[in-house]
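Archive maintenance. Older records in this collection stored only the sequence; we are now back-filling the structure field for every entry so that each record is complete. The fields below show one back-filled record exactly as it appears after the update. Entries are processed alphabetically, and 4-coumarate--CoA ligase is next in the queue.

ARCHIVE ENTRY
Title: 4-coumarate--CoA ligase
Organism field: Hevea brasiliensis
Length field: 551
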Amino acid sequence: MAHNSSFEIDPRSGFCRSNSIFYSKRKPIPLPPNYSIDITTFISSQAHRGKTAFIDATTGHHLTFFDLWKAVDSVATSLSHMGVRKGHVILLLSPNSIFFPVVCLSVMSLGAIITTTNPLNTPREIAKQIADSKPLFAFTTPQLVPKLAESNSNLPIILIDDQNSTNNIQAKIVTTLSQMMRKEPSESRFRERVNIDDTATLLYSSGTTGASKGVVSSHRSLIAMVQTIVGRFNEDREHKFICTVPMFHIYGLAAFATGLLASGSTIIVLSKFEIHEMLSTIERYRATDLPLVPPILVAMINGADQIMSKYDLSSLKTVLSGGAPLSKEVIEGFVEKYQTVRILQGYGLTESTGIGASTDTLEESRRYGTAGLLSPSMEAKIVDPESGKALPVNQTGELWLRGPSIMKGYFFNPEATSSTLNSEGWLRTGDVCYIDDDGFIFVVDRLKELIKYKGYQVPPAELEALLLTHTEIADAAVIPFPDKEAGQVPMAYVVRKDGSHLSESAVMDFVARQVAPYKRIRRVSFIGAIPKNPSGKILRKDLIKLATSKL
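Back-filled structure field:
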């Protein structure tokens, strides 16, 4: 337990009465004593017995650890010769691929900054991120080049896959990743000293204000994240992870593009999620570990009899769930159907580099509804949102986190940074929680009003702003509506302008044309007026109550 020994800390809960801080009960993570180290060098220097780093689930194409580090060196050399320097931003727009980590690790080894974006995003959404982050180059696939071209960007493009003809692509293609990987690594390339506190990643997180914000994370944050992940999977067995979650997201980037490499694990990459492909991949490659989000877990329970008769999942040892705490019914339902598989859970934010709390055994997961114990070297406070007072055990308030994996701040957004991260390094998570007598965190509600659709975060304010641009809409509010398959779906309450006969389908189509599929409005209800408090803030709880009263 990391703490000042002069404080009296309850060994059961981790709570210190003298400063109202909860300390992690897990063994502290070691950070490198060397200040001048980047995340890529740190990972590549870790001793392990692993041989194969990545396997493409569809083609069977694989990269050994030797291939991986040679490719990273070659691509970094090429980028350096192309003028990429410390602090430059490089955009990566790609589905999951065994080459995704090659790009990330190469960029970060130079002290340059990787920014990723969702391949499902529209050209309009991508254009906003480009305008904000100002990347020097973009890595993308031939299929996604049109999205960059439509975003009115004159950004030089590096193609990740050059198997398709590039003759019909109307864009500024400067080279391909395979050409860069064939380049001999150069010891004479321009090298800048990269420090542990330099920026490594710029991931965009949806905010409740509607504007997506760039989360700035340092090499220190990523190293702390890697050490935490390695500590969770230090059993003396071979690990073969199935990569089902998107690599552009903190969950995928943390686990698959960086974290698990340091333990010598093999990562089997699915370019997109499809449950039967995932199951056949587990069988074909004898996968041992499966990270996923709760809706997939529920689908595995509901279809268990058919799944077990069709697929051999005997190699599977662990399922890791993130995105929302699991109920007793889900945990016990899974354990009953898949008796040799343990369920672990994790809680984290983009702003905490995916780290915050976890359950590391089935016994811990059976503390039903918990997000887990605080991650190693992480500290927490439970703060009353009204008074700002830090609260003790079993009291409900906003969860604040502090630790080595916490972000540096939001990209060129000091106002958003200061409202989320205070001067003492505490991150206000926006989650209403309590910590029980044994140090387990329980998430009760969200101060932030993000809708969780299949693990994706959908900001209501962004959709509301879009709805208000419709010529027949006077006012609108968007709320989460419970859904068995997706967790939550965006539902819109709409006030029509006088004389309008706008239909539900017209509202849904209007939004669908302008946003990524996961942000689409799935339900619409028309209302006379949107309930608001005296300061004009939408009373979402009233609308949620109204929407769910008919269930």
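Update note: Residues 400 and 428 are 5 Å apart (CA to CA). The chain is about 30% helix and 25% strand.
Entry marked complete.
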